[in-house]
Amino acid sequence: MKNVLDVLAERGFIEQLTDEKAIRESLLRPTTCYIGFDPTAPSLHVGSLVPIMALAHMQRNGHRPIALAGGGTGLVGDPSGKIEMRKVLTKGEIEKNLRAMGKQFSQFLDFSKGNALLLNNADWLTRLNYIEFLRDIGVHFSVNRMLSFESIKVGLERGLSFIEFNYQLLQAYDFWHLFKHFDCVLQMGGSDQWGNIVAGIDLIRRLQGKAAHGITFPLIETADGKKMGKTEQGSIWLDASMTSPYEYYQYWVNTDDRDVERFLSFFTFLPMGEIRSVRSLENADLNMAKHVLAFEATRINHGMEEAQCAWKSSVALFGGVNIPAHLFPSSNIPRGDSAEVTEVIPTTIIDRERLERGIVAFEIFKETGLCRSGAEARRLIQQGGAYIDGKGVECFDEPLKMEYFEKGEIILRAGKKRFHRVRVR
Per residue in 255-277, is it b (16+ CB within 10 Å) or e — as a string? Predict the structure, then answer.
């Protein structure tokens, strides 16, 4: 079996290492590692997938991952590379978000028999005595050194609160606590967490006289420079109630050609030998690879059944996708192009009486969420980007006619690849 460090490196996960030789040696035996996650929303989003997948690779290679939910640090601000201090949540909001996060982590990690742990740093941070914390922990931190870290420098430029300045101490304490009580010797995180990770390693050395390690991941952006997981319609969430499996599938199938190989490496478990075959693909064959990416990413997050439903709907709307048997043989994507439109397409129900009273085209594009405002819907129609059952909408105030609903429903399309079903009752 490969050293998991080689697996992560081959797939592009590694940006910085504290000591490659020591980390590699540690990973020759079962190792406990952790990554922290902010409980600032009721769902994790696609931007969280790199660290989640890193934990999954660690577990698949015989190590024990800890997903640490920041229930305690969520009560203060994190200055790490951010322009503004993050939202401070109430304990009730954090607890609700933590429950949702636990369900999402279980799609990627096996928590049975202690094979992975989901912990909340509120369990120890909220019990700290401030005077004792300053005496026992704060004494080991140099303000001069803290000021040298990029995250603190960014905070100072906009104005850094004392509560944010303390964040590095709290995260270092987390690493020390996990080292002491769970034998956790490796912290991983985004590149903006380098200073916090190093601070934790230093604290462990000072308090325990032992070595700990750190790995950071690169900031993942799309080929056009956009933040991962962000679209014009908002974030792509892992929770099916916030981003449906069909919408999730469509996000991945719309991947830029330049990102396909890289995203297959990060966001699927397909072997790298199969992923590298993308380099020789173009046009329709490259689009086929995008469906493999979309199917595998959806299967991991939402399960096989939802992935198959999303695939069927996508094939029905966009046409056949035949995956040759010799390409991506490890993928579970269906091999064929027959499909029917299924219930996974986002759907809006309108009353027959309301339809008879009159609804104009731009209103329905706004109401279904295909456009964020009436003005945006008008522009879409005027620019020729709005369709009803495949026919272009010519006027933004064109009324929806009853004859459109002969089959009880219509399919709206905004641009090339965003669809929404409207049914009448």
Answer: beeebbbbbbbbbbebeeebbeb
Domains and CATH numbers, the chain: 4-217 (3.40.50.620), 244-318 (1.10.240.10), 347-424 (3.10.290.10)
Rounded distance, CA 50 to CA 405, Å? 44
Angle between helices 304-318 and 284-302 (to 10 degrees): 150
Residue 341: is it exposed, middle or buried by C-beta count within 10 angstroms (0-12/13-18/19+)? middle
Residue 46's pLDDT band (cuts 50, 70, 90): very high
Q: 132: pLDDT confidence band, cut at 50, 70 and 90?
A: confident
Q: Minimal CA–CA distance to 328: which of 290, 299, 355, 382?
A: 290
pLDDT digits (tens, 9 = 90+) for 248-280: 999 999 999 999 999 999 999 999 999 999 999
**Quick one: DSSP state of residue 117?**
E
Element (H, E) at 25: helix 20-26
Residue with tokens 């706004």: 366
Answer left, alpha or beta for residue 89, where phi above 0 means left and psi between -120 and 50 means alpha. beta
Q: 161-190, pLDDT tens digit by residue?
A: 676 677 788 999 999 999 999 999 999 999
Tokens of 72: 């305690």
Per-residue pLDDT at 339: 47
**What is the pLDDT, as a whole number, of residue 417?**
67
Residue 239 half-sphere exposure, CB side, CA atoms within 13 Å?
14
| Chain centroid, CA 370 distance in Å | 22
Give CB contacts under 8 A, 24+ apart, made by 391-396: 393/361, 395/361, 396/360, 396/361, 396/362
Task: Please give the residue that has the higher pLDDT: either 365 or 59.
Answer: 59
Sheet hosting strand 418-424, strand order edge to edge: 347-350, 418-424, 409-414, 386-388, 391-392
